[in-house]
Design a protein that fits this description.
alpha+beta; seven-stranded mixed β-sheet; 346 residues
Length: 346
Amino acid sequence: MEKRPLIGILVEKRSSRKRILELYQRYHHLKLKLYAFTPEDIVWEEQQIIGFSFTKGKWKQSSFPFPHVVYNRCFNKDRLITIQRLERTIGRNKCFNSINSFNKWDFYHLLKQSAIYPYVPDSFLYHEVNISKLLEQYKLLYIKPLYGSKGESVYRLERMEYGDIHISMHTLAPRFICRKNEDIQAKLNELLSTGKYMVQQGIRAGRLDRQYFDIRVLVQKGILGEWTVSALTSRVAYDDYFNTSMCKTVCDAAEIFSKLFSAEKMDETLKSLSEVSVEAAKEAETITGLLGELSVDFVLDEQKKLWIIEMNGKPQKTIYHDMKRFKHMKLIYSRPIEYAYYLSQF
């Protein structure tokens, strides 16, 4: 009897092992053994892992040998040493999404030198620029931590016609107003006292009925080990919120585009989104090592031009659970397991 590959999903907390494993177990139909584990479950001295699995119709915790392939669903920023040690143990190119907490500046620099540079807003390291001069040039800026997700600690700066600068977080309503005779740099230094930040050219995103929206493209590898698009969705923010992570609804991107474009232009835009996202994923791997999935976030500006505003190495999948009539649930959970199976064959 042929030996089935052993695939491990590395998760952050023991309490989430069953919930996460259940989804991946439900949607794949390959001959393999799947278990979930945390960094704390690894017993290095015995080369064993205390894993959680579905065995003989029951969920249970058991002792497992090291897997043939590891799919990392932990943010690597705090777990990198563990993940690197795992990679040394199970072999090269057997652990994917090892680096999934992306440095925004590294990715900006990478994409700006690639074929998809026209889709990338100008960006700068915060400590290297004069914010007043950048506001004169762009009128609108975003200041983002180099590491971060869900719009946390992202500031929106807009230079108003009369010279005041509005500083906002999450919503358009300003949290602070810097008068034209005040020092904006001093105010920002006070707000950004900890951490490293980058400054991004502000894209004046188009709105639909007063609501901002983005386009999230989920790109994954499957059974053939090649990048492909699994889902194109839009997160629609609450009225006057610019942070689309705080979204009112999630829908298929085609629903939004059908209100903005002709049928021909919609197909063209959806095709561009797919092609650019696959290219961005290929570029990302040159600095992260092996990836099996990532998401690329776009906005459409007021002239309906596409811009990449973010890339995420640990795509949030719960957003798809909130969608009505989402047709690709099987894909988003089966493809990483298919890719793990693909890697196990070498």
